[in-house]
């Protein structure tokens, strides 16, 4: 791979897995169809051929068993990377994740570590139905003991996964599936940002848009349209959902005085609520308008022909920007 090559997020994740497996023989990849098929999105394509069936393991269709086995492997010194085939398929493993994986380190008074990474292609935008287009990040962020991250570009996809694998904490790594084929530049020799550090991707002075994963590109497009209308919008890519880098968001809001939080998950009890509450507490005397949230509706994921109405897009985010600037 060229040092500054422009590649897709899917290929960046594949390259990241390959780099981690080459660096540490204890790194394993496991999940449904990750080996011979290379995953339903072909993200693990070629890994089993190069590293063998002992390190790239095709598992039965049993998410609870997959995660349970990964926990056992981690306790024996391995670093398993589990792929959940689709976001909605993670729920059979929810018990293993929240009652075992998340709590094992604290339960053992810090004497054991459970370095498991769970990769989950998540969110919509691919014309799939419920159980294949969910955004369950808030459910996991509420659980102490888990770290939750989501990249929005190829460089972050490459570096954040390696950082997650190398760490000793369990990490849920949410991959925005509709962005798998988005291309961006990857510098394999750069020094990556810390795993849980937010990043300002576009500077602005009138309003802050905060997002992660699939919504970052939407917010950047909104900022471009707003600029044509004479509005200066700053975009913050949160990158991490637990923990959240509130300091970067606070610094931006102290400058702009307004914040709109955008995520694809339903607004009701979503991660945007926590961000809105924290920033209201931290920036009360800087805010010129209430913190607004844009997201999905509190309803089951719709059939594909209604998907565009359900997903927060350019117009819905622009409307929130206009409402915040109208105060």
TrEMBL record:
Transmembrane stretches, start-end: none
Gene3D superfamilies: 3.40.50.920, 3.40.50.970
SUPFAM superfamilies found in the cross-reference section: Thiamin diphosphate-binding fold (THDP-binding), TK C-terminal domain-like
CDD domains: TPP_PYR_E1-PDHc-beta_like
Cofactor: thiamine diphosphate
Stored Pfam families: Transket_pyr (PF02779), Transketolase_C (PF02780)
EC number: 1.2.4.4
InterPro entries, per the entry: THDP-binding (IPR029061), Transketo_C/PFOR_II (IPR009014), Transketolase-like_Pyr-bd (IPR005475), Transketolase_C (IPR033248)
Keywords: Oxidoreductase
Boundaries of every Transketolase-like pyrimidine-binding domain copy: 7-182
Classification via PANTHER family: 2-OXOISOVALERATE DEHYDROGENASE SUBUNIT BETA, MITOCHONDRIAL (PTHR42980:SF1), 2-OXOISOVALERATE DEHYDROGENASE SUBUNIT BETA-RELATED (PTHR42980)
Name of the protein in question: 3-methyl-2-oxobutanoate dehydrogenase (2-methylpropanoyl-transferring)
Organism (species): Streptomyces lunalinharesii
